[in-house]
Amino acid sequence: MSSVSCRIYEIFLSLQGESTTQGYPTVFVRLSGCPLRCVWCDTAYAFSGGRRMEVVEILTTVASHRVSRVTVTGGEPLAQKSCGKLLSSLCDAGYEVSLETSGGMDIAAVDQRVQVVMDLKAPGSGEVAGNRMSNIHWLSESDQIKFVIADRADYEWSCKQLSDYQLVDRCGLLYSPVWGELAPEQLAAWILEDRLPVRMQLQLHKLLWGDVPGT
């Protein structure tokens, strides 16, 4: 394990801001780098920089925070080949592990003990062509797909994906408005009007602390 390392931008303790574990104290392990450039990205600061840490050092840092949940995020964590080893090592250490991934990288080899929270990029992101739709096959009931919605066109596109790929029967579904662009009450109205079987979520960390890195 000591020879395996990842480039880490930051490791910090916060409340989980999204997904079905929203609100729980969670250690975030943010890996540097991302091949995508979503126009609304809120972690562009992690596209570069950070420092290389061996997996054993990462585990030691995570343990110092004394909580049971860990989220591996980015950037795009799967852009680093060693991310898979990190995920498995965290699971072996007894943590409840989730992975936040853009949906543009292959998730087939991700440890099945990891809860995958995968984006499907709507047209408003500027990266819809980067979606790897074959990833849907690898999702289980405990995993989640997240749609970040900027406008009505994004919303309608997302609804088409629900139908085309029968996503309601596949995994959990999360709808989020782009922070500062789409009014949450508007997205809520659309979801209610169409009776969508999805979970609408707001980014709890931004409601609490604003758009501040490392929170």
Topology record:
Layout: E1 5-15, E2 25-31, E3 51-54, H1 55-63, E4 69-73, H2 83-92, E5 96-101, E6 115-119, E7 144-149, H3 152-164, E8 172-177, H4 184-194, E9 199-200, H5 204-209
Parallel strand pairs: 2-4, 4-5, 5-6, 6-7, 7-8, 8-9
Antiparallel strand pairs: 1-2, 1-3
Report what the structure shows:
This protein is α/β, with parallel strands linked by helices and 215 residues long. It has one domain (5-209): TIM Barrel (Alpha-Beta Barrel), CATH 3.20.20. The chain contains five helices and nine strands, in the order E-E-E-H-E-H-E-E-E-H-E-H-E-H. The chain has helices spanning 55-63, 83-92, 152-164, 184-194, 204-209, and strands at residues 5-15, 25-31, 51-54, 69-73, 96-101, 115-119, 144-149, 172-177, 199-200. A nine-stranded mixed sheet has the order 3-1-2-4-5-6-7-8-9. The chain is globular, with a radius of gyration of 17 Å. The two termini are 29 Å apart.
What would you say about this model in short?
With 215 residues, the chain is an alpha/beta fold. The protein has a single domain (5-209), classed as Aldolase class I (TIM Barrel, Alpha-Beta Barrel), CATH 3.20.20.70. 23% of the residues lie in helices and 24% in strands.
Backbone structural class: alpha/beta
**How many domains in all?**
1
SSE run:
EEEHEHEEEHEHEH
CATH H-tier superfamily: Aldolase class I
Helix content: 10-25%
Tags for this entry?
215 residues, alpha/beta, TIM Barrel, 9-stranded mixed sheet, 5 helices, 9 strands, 23% helix
